[in-house]
Amino acid sequence: MDFAGETVRVLHVDDNSDLVDVTATVLEHEDDRLCVETATNVDAAMERLSVERFDCIVSDYDMPDQNGIEFLETVREGHGDLPFILYTGKGSEEIASDAISAGVTDYLQKGSGTEQYKLLANRICNAVGASRSRRELDERTRRLESLISSLPGMVYRRPNASGWPMETVEGEIESLTGYTAADFETGEVVWGDDVLHPEDCDRIWETVQDALAAQGEFEVTYRIITADGIEKWMWEHGHRVPVAADEPDALEGFVMDITDLRERERKLERYKRMVNTMPESACIYDTAGRFELVNQYLASFYGTTREELEGEPSSLLPKIRSEYEGDPYQDLIDGERDELRGEVSGEFPGHGYEVLEYRLTPLVIDGTVEGVVSVTREVTEQREHETEIARQRSILKAQQEAVIDGILVVDEDDTIVSYNERFVDMWDIPRDIVERGDEEVALEWAMEQVAEPEAFRVDVEALYERPEMTARDELELADGRVFDRYTAPVVAEDGTRFGRLWTFRDITDLTEQKRELAQQNERLEEFVSVVSHDLQNPLQVARSRLMLAREECDSEHLDSMDNALQRMNDIADDVLRLAREGVDIGMTEPVDLRETSDAAWTIVADGDEAAELRYVADENREWIAEADSDRLSGLFENLFGNAIEHGGPGVTVSVGLLDDGTGFYVSDDGPGIPADKREKVFEAGYSTAEDGTGFGLRIARQIAEVHGWEIHVTDSEGGGARFEITGVEFPE
């Protein structure tokens, strides 16, 4: 609306006094039509509204006594549709939604630049302009209704000349056109030039002239543009009237506004198009059950046209009737039923087996049932899909109940959507809590069960704040039990997150076993240290005495004693190594097999220059394995030592990767190991060499087992022994 020169009085309400003063100053600077008054609380604002007239209110949202929306509701109660703009620094979709629901005129967030004030000034002017326009329109409508009660249009007399200037007009001229009768009668406004829609001028002129020539009267519909720029539809009926011979033809007629009628016709046409484009079958049956009116979808379902289908009996009604006792369709006709709803399945012409969902209601006109309205929908695929979903849910539920873990699934709204009985039993949680679905209540219950409630809550909340995070840890309960807790997001193939999965496994016994094993390992380590000390001391004394004895006498028994002492020393070393290798491995890491075996070979083959180490290379594979590097070195040392001990001088040892990718092997070209001896060689103390201790291969197996690997012996390509280590993890 153009209200140039008119003052717009604005009341700005904000609890920040500095801000309201600045805003008032800047707004009045942006638009000199604005006169801005201020209030720093709602009570002061309401007091001013009670004694002064304002064109618009601008209010903050977050205020101490009432928020902006509550203030808006108070204003609406006492001041109707006074323009109200919510101008706030606290914005959210929820606030905007509440503001719109409460009837706010406009919603604008505060900004730090002058552009935001310019935008606010513009919004104020637009809101006031729209409000004034509405008031003027309401007043115009009131006058129009008053005129319609006496004359539903206007009558005229005009010459049949270009532009159709009016001589006289009477009736509701101004409400129809926005112009006064004087505007037309003085010639200031010409009907054909200033009112008739430009696109309709030529068509209407030709239609009227043709009709006058044929029968002396005419009837036309056309559009006009009112003084306010509004487009309307008019219906006009006119005729030629006798005039003096020297005067131009004159026309008299009646013009009536049919805009509402045209709008109803347009709505009816849109409704028809909507019905005919529905992806559902819609029709009206007559009282005999024949198609009276059908939409395009239903005609397509039967493979025909609407015209051919109308008048034909329905193939659906007999199927529906067969599902009931009596005649439910007749009950609709007789007014004994308000609705008939359900599903029916069977063979339909051209479609085969289908499942249809239907709804039938009486067609009542002027209190009389004249037929039945029917809407049906094909749900065959939907029912099959629902059946498949039910089957999948049953399988999933069976899987949940079959596992030993407690399972809980929470959706993105923190609502429990799935759980198994194991979860209920493990947490001893009341069933009504999980069935209620409130995850917060379940969390409160769990906090009472754990040993460290606050730490438990912090961990859970941190995981919900990071919905993409996966985590695993151990959870200690107040009653001494220990749960292995695992959680991960529930993610669809397209990356959409649907919530979070929690699993709990009772590892109380396993934890106790680990604790006992650690204690055993500590005692074993203590035992090894004691044995090492107690064995080495007597052996050292014996060697010293033997050395002194050699100085005092020369006896063949001294060499035998020396060999025996050396044998005892070797056995003691291997026993201690065997004991130590039984302790759990430390941290594993990616280890280069060739570098580790090179270092082990340097230690074992020292002094045997004829022995050779070879690698069976595979250029397409990495020689990196996940292992404890120290233990892996001990494995190679024992296997290399066995090969040198039994293969003799010049033995060749080969290291390679297994073809199936499960591990690696160590082989030699020595005498090999007979098939019936292959398991015995891993027994402690078993050796085929006279000076062997029989502990080397036992240690090798023990190192493999603590890694979770397996070791087996077979024949090498050269006829010697081949030790295969499997179950090895090779990092990607």
From TrEMBL:
Its EC number is 2.7.13.3. Residues 140-215, 267-312 form the PAS domain. It comes from the Archaea. One of its GO terms (molecular function) is phosphorelay sensor kinase activity. It is an enzyme of class 2 (transferase). The modification 4-aspartylphosphate is found at residue 60. The keyword Kinase applies. Residues 530-726 form the Histidine kinase domain. Residues 9-125 form the Response regulatory domain. It catalyses: ATP + protein L-histidine = ADP + protein N-phospho-L-histidine. Keywords: Kinase, Phosphoprotein, Transferase. SMART domains: HATPase_c (SM00387), HisKA (SM00388), PAC (SM00086), PAS (SM00091), REC (SM00448). InterPro entries: CheY-like_superfamily, HATPase_C_sf, HATPase_dom, His_kinase_dom, HisK_dim/P_dom, HisK_dim/P_sf, PAC, PAS. The keyword Kinase applies. Residues 218-270 form the PAC domain. NCBIfam families: sensory_box (TIGR00229). This is histidine kinase. It comes from Haloarcula sebkhae.
